[in-house]
Amino acid sequence: MRIGITTTVPIEVLYAAGYKVIDLNNAFISSKDYSKYIELAERDGFPKSLCAWIKGIYGACIENGIKEVVGVVEGDCSNTKSLVEVFKSRGIKIYPFSYPTLHTKEEVKRSIDEFLRQFNVTLEEAENVRQKLNKGRYLAREIDKLTLEFKATGFENHLYQVSLSDFNGDVEKFIKILEGKVEDIKKRNPNPKKLRLAYIGVPPMTGDLYDFVENLDAQIIYNEVQREFAFPRFDEVKDIYEQYYNYTYPYSLSFRLKEIKRQIKERKIDGVIHYTQAFCYRAIDDIVIKKELDVPVLNIEGDKLNALDARTKIRIEAFLDMLKDLKED
Q1: Secondary structure (3-state) at 3
Q2: In the prediction, which pLDDT does 115 show?
Q3: Residues 239, 179 share a domain
Q4: Which of 276, 279, 302, 278 is nearest to 289 (CA)?
Q5: What beta strand segments (E) does the chain contain?
Q6: Distance CA 77, CA 6 (A)
Q7: 255 within 8 A of 261, measured Cβ to Cβ
Q8: Residues 63 and 212 in one domain
Q9: pTM of the complete model
Q10: Domain check: are 176 and 316 in the same one?
Q11: What string of H, E and C letters represents the secondary structure of 224-252?
């Protein structure tokens, strides 16, 4: 059985229920012909002035014949509520999940208990799966550490953490991939760069960002949301309730910023690239982010392209030149 998800959800419950989980975001952006998913959505009536991710999620779901979807209707993209209504009209079974606006342990527990009930899964069954998934989360954390040693690249850091949203649909196989990758990276010689960068915001449409900055003597050594998808604090919590309570992405910006500030300090970050998606309400967060952070912040925006455009490249290059000048002063 396959089930799609619109963003990270308690996949422990879904795997315990016997599903193969497919993160529709990953299915969209990893496709060689990703633009066909956007075109499919626009042919079916989705407006051009709408986030490409929403259209890509829709297209990936329809094109891949996904018949069941978990839609996060609170705590993620506000457009998801309308997206799930379209899915319903196409005969797709929807399981709603909410990250509560009132961010308390009691409310998070209530939401997860309802999710368990929907899939007829016990807490014990979900916890058993969580222990299995934690093996992969440990390996992803190792890759994150190897990035700080300048052995893993920024893109590897991005890819292997973001993929833990669904474990590529096959937990055991993906854990083996991670094991091999960790061993491979450990054997490398460090390749240090002059600038240590943080990337915050939703994972990028433009995956070439990482290679581009590395060619300019900089490296992204902290991927905020991707790292949260990998649940790096998995071994600091006692159960699934605490795990999803401590997960920063779906809650308030002030809650996210606490962890961002901590990582900026610990990783000695020189500058931050804040990525936003065209037509997304999260772009407004940039106002607060620039006010709250003590390091320079560059906001870049993506739309339908999966590669950086010339204007964005020039802006990044100028930003990195400024950071280098600041570092030399």
Answers
A1: strand
A2: 97
A3: yes
A4: 276
A5: 2-5, 20-23, 68-74, 93-98, 195-201, 218-223, 271-277, 297-302
A6: 9
A7: no
A8: no
A9: 0.93
A10: yes
A11: HHHHHHCCCCHHHCCCHHHHHHHCCCCCC
